[in-house]
Write a structure and sequence with these properties.
The chain is of the alpha/beta class and 135 residues long. The protein contains five helices and seven strands. It is globular. It has one domain (6-134): NAD(P)-binding Rossmann-like Domain (Rossmann fold, 3-Layer(aba) Sandwich), CATH 3.40.50. It starts with 5 loop residues before the first helix and ends with a helix. The chain has a five-stranded parallel β-sheet with strand order 2-1-5-6-7, with helices on both faces. Helix 3 (81-94) runs parallel beside helix 4.
Amino acid sequence: MEINSNEAIERILESTKTIAVVGLSSDPTRPSFGVSRYMKSHGYKIIPVNPNESKILGEMAFATLEDVPVKIDLVNIFRRGSEAGAHVDEAIRIGVPAVWLQEGVIDDDAADRALRAGLVVVMDRCIAKELQVRV
C-alpha cells in the first residue's frame, strides 16, 4: 500500500478505535488539542502520549508509546519531522498497525521504514480534515 493512498486513509479511519497521539498538548490553542478533541467527539478513543502532561481531554497521559497499557490501532504524530522517526520506530517495535504523521510532519525515511514493516502510513495530512470529508 502506498503512503497517503485513499485506501490507506479509508482503512485507518474505518478500522481505528484507539489513537495514541504523540505530542498531544493540553493547550487548547495547539492543533494537537483541537484535532484530538474532534476525533474524540467522533467516537475515537484518544490516548495522550506526552511526558510533560498528566491528563488531557479527560484521558491519562503516558510518557511513551511503550507505556500505554492498551492496544493501539493508530499512532498520530504531532512532532517536528526531525523527531517523528523515533516515534515511528517505537510504533513499529510495539506492533501498531498504522502511523499518521500530521500536516507538516514529514520524514520520508521513517515512512519508508514503517511501510517496509507492514504498517499503513499517512504523512503530511490532517486526520481531522480527512474525517470531515468522509462524515
